[in-house]
Design a protein that fits this description.
With 192 residues, this protein is α+β, with helices and mostly antiparallel strands. The chain is 17% helix and 51% strand. The chain is built from 4 helices and 10 strands; from the N terminus they run H-E-H-E-E-E-E-H-E-E-E-E-E-H. The chain has helices at 2-8, 26-31, 93-106, 187-191; strands at 10-12, 38-51, 55-62, 68-79, 81-82, 113-124, 128-135, 137-153, 156-168, 175-182. Strands 1, 2, 5, 8 and 9 form a 5-stranded mixed beta sheet that branches. Strands 3-7-10 form a 3-stranded antiparallel beta sheet. Strands 4-6 form a two-stranded antiparallel sheet. The protein is elongated and about 75 Å long. The N and C termini lie far apart (77 Å).
C-alpha cells in the first residue's frame, strides 16, 4: 500500500502555506476535506503559550480634584486565527478534523473564541484618566493535514498541508492591570 502511494504521487504543500503554481490552493485543499476519501489533522508537538498584547477594555475619567476609586465591569472577546487565513466554519470537514485531532492529542476541547467578563477596581488620581487593560493567554499549535483522494487531485492522490492555529487558552493565565495618566491638555475635552 505504501509503495502504491509512492508510485502515484504525493503532493507536499510548503509549510508557509503557499501552494505551488500548478497545485491546489490552500482553500481548495481544506474544502476538499468535505468530500475526500480521507482527511486527518495531525498536531505536531506541545502548544506554544503566549499572552496577546494587552488592550484597553474600560476607561474611567476623574474630573474631580480628589482621588477616586471605582469598580468597572467589562467584557472582552478573543478569537482564534490560523496561518492560512482559512475561515473556520464549524460545518466544514477541515474544522471537524482539526477539532478531533486537537482533542485526541491535547485531551481538551479547542476554543475558537473566548469571552472574559469581570469587574475590576481602579483608583484614578485627580484630573486623570484610568484604563483597565486585558491580555488573553493564547496557545499556538502546528500540525499537518493529510488528505487522500480516490482519483488524482491536481495530479496527486495524497496531499499534505501544514498549518498553525493560535487560539485563546481555556483557564489560561490572563493578564489584567490598571494604569492612569494625567489629563493634561485633554481635560477640557474629557470633562466638558
Amino acid at each position: 500500500m505504501i509503495g502504491a502511494a509512492s508510485a502515484v504521487g504525493i503532493s507536499i504543500v510548503a509549510p508557509t502555506g503557499v501552494a505551488h503554481a500548478a497545485g491546489p490552493t490552500n482553500t481548495e485543499l481544506l474544502d476538499a476535506c468535505d468530500w475526500a476519501d480521507y482527511c486527518v489533522f495531525h498536531p505536531d508537538g506541545a502548544p506554544r503559550l503566549s499572552v496577546q498584547p494587552s488592550t484597553s477594555v474600560a476607561t474611567s475619567n476623574n474630573c474631580t480634584g480628589r482621588n477616586q476609586t471605582n469598580s468597572i465591569g467589562w467584557s472582552h472577546t478573543t478569537f482564534s486565527s490560523n496561518s492560512l487565513g482559512y475561515s473556520f466554519k464549524f460545518s466544514s470537514g477541515a474544522v471537524k478534523e482539526f477539532m478531533i485531532g486537537y482533542k485526541v492529542t491535547y485531551q481538551h476541547e479547542w476554543n475558537q473564541q473566548s469571552t472574559v467578563s469581570d469587574t475590576t477596581a481602579i483608583s484614578v488620581p485627580a484630573y486623570s484618566v484610568g484604563n483597565i487593560y486585558f491580555g488573553k493567554q493564547m496557545e499556538t499549535i502546528r500540525g499537518t493535514y493529510e488528505i487522500h483522494f480516490e482519483k488524482p487531485f491536481y495530479g496527486h492522490y495524497i496531499h499534505y498541508l501544514t498549518m498553525e492555529v493560535t487560539s485563546p487558552r481555556a483557564n489560561g493565565q490572563d493578564v489584567i492591570y490598571t494604569q492612569s495618566r494625567a489629563m493634561g491638555g485633554d481635560r477640557a475635552r474629557l470633562c466638558g
